[in-house]
Design a protein that fits this description.
mainly alpha; Tyrosyl-Transfer RNA Synthetase; three-stranded parallel β-sheet; two-stranded parallel sheet; 14 helices; binds adenosine monophosphate
Length: 326
C-alpha cells in the first residue's frame, strides 16, 4: 500500500522512490495505491486545482505502468473508512511525538500561518491509510522512513491495547536501501513544490529537460586521481545511474577517475537519456489525463476494491475495540 499527494506535477523522485516499485509489486502482491487527496489539504487548502491534480496523478501512475486491473488505484476520500480509523488512532498518538516529526517541523517552518492539526496528525492519517488494508509492505522513498517508524508504534499500541489486528508495516524497496532522488542543484531532494527548476517532472518537455540538466552545477573536474566527488557531481552520476545504460555510466565513471571527464558531454548524454526515459511517460499521461470517462471508471473500480478491503478491516477493528453494542 502506498500513496502520492495530488499537490502538483509528479517528478523523478516520485517515480524512482515510489512508482517504479508499485509497478513491480503489482505483479506478485495484492496492492492498493491511492491519490492522497485528503493529505493534500494539510498544505493546499485551496481546492480549485484539486480535480486537475487528482486526474494528473492518476494518469501519471498509469502512464508509468500501473495497471488498474491488477492493483486497486483509488482516491483516499473515496474510502471514508480511513477517516474513522484515523479518529481511533488519534487516541493512541501523543502530541509530543507528533511535534517531533521532521516533516511537521519542516512544514511548520514553510507555512507558519497554517500550522493546522491535520499537519500535526499527518503520520496518524498515513498510518490509517496503510493499515486500513492491513498492509505490511509500503513502497516509499527515503523521506518516509520516519513516518513508517511512527506507523509501527501506533500499530503496536493498538495491538497491545485491543488485541492483534494489524501487521507491522515496513518501508519496502525489494530489500534495497530506500531511494532519495536529489535535486539538480545539489541542495535537498526533488520535490513537487520546492526547487522547481532543479526538479525533473514527468510532464517536462524535451526542451525543458535539456535546459534543466545543462544548467546543473559542475566545476572544472578533478585534477588528482581518487578525488571524492562533490555532492552536486555525485547527484549527476546518481541520475545517470537511474536512466542511462551501465556502459555509459561506466565510461563517465572511468573518465572521472582518470581526471579527463568533460561535464558538458556528461550532461548532454544525461539529457538525451532522460528525454528517452521521460518522453514516452509524458505522452502517455497526456492522453490518459484527457480521457475523463476512463479516469472515472478507474476511480470507481479502485474505490470498490479499496472499500471491500477497508470494510472488512473496520468490522474487525470495531469488534476488537468493543464498539459493538448489539
Ligand atoms: P509525495 O510527493 O510527498 O506525495 O510523495 C509520494 C512518494 O514519492 C513517497 O513515497 C515519497 O517517498 C516519494 N518521493 C517524493 N520525493 C522523492 C524523492 N526526491 N526521492 C525519492 N522518493 C521521493
Amino acid at each position: 500500500m502506498s500513496g502520492i499527494r495530488p499537490t502538483g506535477f509528479l517528478h523523478l523522485g516520485n517515480y524512482f522512490g515510489a512508482l517504479r516499485n508499485y509497478v513491480k509489486m503489482q505483479e506478485s502482491y495484492t496492492c492498493f495505491f491511492m491519490v492522497a487527496d485528503l493529505h493534500s489539504l494539510t498544505t493546499h487548502p485551496d481546492t480549485k486545482e484539486l480535480k486537475a491534480h487528482v486526474h494528473r496523478v492518476l494518469a501519471e501512475n498509469i502512464a508509468s505502468g500501473l495497471d488498474p486491473d491488477k492493483a486497486a488505484l483509488y482516491c483516499q476520500s473515496h474510502v471514508p473508512e480511513t477517516t474513522e480509523l484515523y479518529l481511533y488512532l488519534n487516541m493512541l498518538a501523543y502530541k509530543g511525538e507528533l511535534e517531533k516529526t521532521t516533516t511537521f517541523k519542516e512544514k511548520a517552518r514553510l507555512q507558519p500561518d497554517n500550522m493546522n492539526a491535520g499537519l500535526l496528525t499527518y503520520p496518524v492519517l498515513q498510518t490509517a491509510d496503510i493499515i486500513i488494508h492491513r498492509a505490511s509492505l509500503v513502497p516509499v522513498g527515503k523521506d518516509q522512513e520516519q513516518h513508517l517508524e511512527m506507523a509501527r508504534n501506533f500499530v503496536n499500541r493498538f495491538n497491545h491495547r485491543y488485541g492483534e489486528v494489524f501487521p507491522e508495516p515496513m518501508a519496502f524497496n525489494f530489500g534495497e536501501e530506500l531511494v532519495k532522488v536529489p535535486s539538480l542543484d545539489g541542495t535537498g531532494k526533488m520535490s513537487k513544490s520546492e526547487n522547481q527548476h532543479a526538479t525533473l517532472y514527468l510532464a517536462d518537455s524535451d526542451e525543458m529537460i535539456r535546459k534543466k540538466i545543462m544548467k546543473a552545477q559542475t566545476d572544472s573536474g578533478p585534477t588528482e586521481p581518487g578525488t571524492p566527488k562533490p555532492a552536486y557531481i555525485e547527484n549527476l552520476f546518481l541520475l545517470m545511474k537511474l536512466v542511462s545504460g551501465a556502459d555509459v555510466l561506466e565510461s563517465f565513471e572511468q573518465a572521472y577517475q582518470e581526471c579527463r571527464i568533460r561535464y558538458g558531454d556528461m550532461k548532454k548524454q544525461l539529457a538525451e537519456d532522460m528525454i528517452a526515459f521521460i518522453g514516452p511517460i509524458r505522452e502517455k499521461a497526456e492522453a490518459i489525463r484527457n480521457d475523463h470517462s476512463y479516469l472515472r471508471q478507474v476511480m470507481e473500480k479502485g474505490a470498490e476494491k479499496a472499500r471491500a478491503s477497508s470494510g472488512a478491516t473496520m468490522k474487525l477493528v470495531r469488534e476488537h475495540m468493543g464498539l459493538n453494542y448489539y
